[in-house]
Amino acid sequence: MHEMSLCEGIRQVIEDQARAHTIKAVKCVRVEIGRFAGVEKPALEFAFDVVMRGSVAEGARLEMLDLPGRAMCYDCVKEVEIAHRLDPCPDCGGGKLMPVGGDEMRIKDLEVI
Amino acid sequence: MCTVCGCGDSSVEGHSHSHDHGHSHGHHHHHAHSHDIHFGHGPAGVEVPGMSQDRLIEIETDILAKNDRYADANRAVLKDRGMFAINLVSSPGSGKTTLLCKTIEALGDTPLAVIEGDQQTANDAERIRATGAAAVQVNTGKGCHLDGHMVGHAMEHLPMRQGSFLFVENVGNLVCPAGFDLGEDCKVAILSVTEGEDKPLKYPDMFTASRIALLNKVDLAPHCDVDLDLYEENLRRVNPGIEIIRLSARTGEGMADWLGWLRSNLAAKQAEEAAE
Question: Which residue of A81, B78, B197, B218 has the fewest C-beta atoms within 10 A of its own C-beta?
Answer without folding.
Answer: A81
